[in-house]
Amino acid sequence: MAQIQTVTPTGSPGDLLPAGRRFRIVLVLGLLTALGPLTIDMYLPSLPTITDDLQTTAAAVQLTLTGTLVGLAFGQLLVGPLSDAIGRRLPLLAGIAVHVLASILCVIAPNLALLGALRVLQGLGAAAAAVVAMAIVRDLFDGMAAARLFSRLMLVVGVAPILAPTIGGLVLGWTSWRGVFVVLTAVGVAIMVASAVVLPETLPVARRRNGGVAGTLRDYGRLFTDRVYVGLILVAGLAMAALFAYVSGSSYVFQDGYGMSEQQFALVFAGGAVGLIGATQFNVRLLRWFTPQQILGGSLVAGLFFGLVLLVLAATDTGGLVGILIPLWLVLTMVGLAMPNAPALALSRHGEAAGTAAALLGAVQFGVGALAAPLVGVLGVGAVAMAIVVFGGMLAATVVCFLVVRPHQLEFDESLPAVAVAH
Questions:
Q1: Nearest Cα to 48, choosing from 265, 349, 297?
Q2: What are the two backbone dihedrals, phi and then psi, of residue 277, each rounded to the nearest 5 degrees?
Q3: Cβ distance 49 to 168 under 8 Å?
Q4: Which 3 state secondary structure label does DSSP give 422?
Q5: Cβ proximity of 325 and 264 under 8 Å
Q6: Among 80-84, 96-100, 151-155, 162-166, which stretch is predicted with the lowest mean pLDDT?
Q7: Beta pairing partners, 420
Q8: In whole numbers, what is the pLDDT of the chain averaged over residues?
Q9: Neighbours of 420 (CB within 10 A)
Q10: Is the pLDDT of residue 229 over 70?
Q11: Is the Cα torsion angle 378, 158, 167, 324 positive or negative in sign?
């Protein structure tokens, strides 16, 4: 049976792990973080094909993406408190198993309605991976160490969108869109095995919260009384809305609007992810000279400016494809700077209920994203529609950041003591 080691305020539990073991844990956390983006993005090149094959509309097919995001949002609300009550491993492994089962059934889905329902289940399963990964980070690390690790995990969030549409495009080269879900099944099985073998239980029994439904509601109620926390998760969600406006609309904009092939679209999509990756990793260096709140505020202001440029160029049809790509990639770069710092700041405030706090954060991120994805379709599935939602997300995120969070007044204590870790 794993023993619990109490940690003094001078070090976090993750710092006490052997370097090799810490590396393996972080690697698996990266895989868990990748499951959601892979589930969302791998089938993006096939959206026009699904539209034709199932004889439906682009807006209706985009609802299958919305279904995945809804599953990711509500799944985290369920799994987060559960992981605070019974530990991290069991909810994690059960959730990935649900994802694998849903992926298998997607392969044989006969119509769009069933496909959409199964995508919700996929999202529910991927939610377990997302929220437990964040909770484990908070179990093991505090302060700047957590912010740096979130930046590393955001590298995975950046790499996954590069690989996912590329893999999806390659799969479509030799089989139908259903083959994408065969690949997702294999990925889910591999991640489940890696998690079972490598990840320890990071939440000791002494720190579990067993208040039942009433206790969960109290925990959520306590989170909602924290103005700064609520503001930070809204900022994270609204920045995610800008990202998912791009995710949901880009295949139609570039494939239908600019005549790109599925493989060409995958390369263009990868270009945006490169900006996201570079920003999240550059964030680690920026943290040497600036606080997370300073980086968050600056990136949102810059992202708002580039979003406005995107909207103006799209609305006036100036610059053609280049006029869309350059400001769009710059917005994604600024989102890449904002995304690690908002969660790090939010979760640093509620280490006593890390799973619940991470769940609400993830639910807001993917819930707002679920609203943004179909909105692009409603507005016309074109460059202007995508630009409107991207700019709107960045505008709202910036307003909430400076009026609600007030980063210039926010303190960030990187010396908060960690309590214990299971070995």
A1: 265
A2: -60, -50
A3: no
A4: strand
A5: no
A6: 151-155
A7: 6
A8: 82
A9: 17
A10: yes
A11: positive
Lookup: tokens for 53? 């094959």
9 pLDDT higher than 60: no
- Average pLDDT of the segment spanning 389-408: 91
Token digits of residue 390: 């991207």
What residue type is 110 in one-letter code? P
Residue whose C-alpha is closest to residue 375's, from 238, 258, 264:
238
Q: Which residue has the tokens 């160490």?
A: 145
Report phi then psi at 4, rounded to 5: -100, 125
Query: What percent of the chain clears pLDDT 90, i.e. is strictly above it?
Result: 27
For the chain, the straight-line distance linking the first and the last C-alpha, in angstroms and rounded, comes to 9
Please check whether residue 202 is in contact with residue 140, taking contact to mean a CB–CB distance below 8 angstroms.
yes
C-alpha dist (Å) from residue 203 to 88, 169, 230, 237, 351:
7, 40, 25, 27, 12
CB atoms within 10 A of CB 143: 17
Residue in 391, 395, 364, 359 with CA at minimum distance from that of residue 375: 391
Element (H, E) at 5: strand 4-6
Nearest to 94 by CA among 128, 135, 133: 128
pLDDT digits (tens, 9 = 90+) for 107-140: 998 899 999 999 999 999 999 998 888 888 877 7
Q: Tell me: pLDDT of 38 over 60.
A: yes
- On whether the CB atoms of residues 276 and 335 are closer than 8 A, the answer is yes
pLDDT tens-place string over residues 302-350:
999 999 999 999 999 898 888 999 999 999 999 988 888 888 788 777 7
By C-alpha distance, which of 32, 278, 292 is closest to 148? 292
| DSSP-assigned beta bridge partners for residue 6 | 420
Contact 258, 384 (CB under 8 A): no
Q: Give phi and psi for 6, each to the nearest 5.
A: -75, 140
Question: pLDDT-derived band of residue 157, with 50, 70 and 90 as boundaries?
Answer: low
User: 211-242: b or e for each residue (b if 16 or more CB lie within 10 Å)?
Assistant: eeeebbeebbeebeeeebbbbbbbbbbbbbbb
The residues pairing with 122 across neighbouring beta strands, listed in sequence order, are none
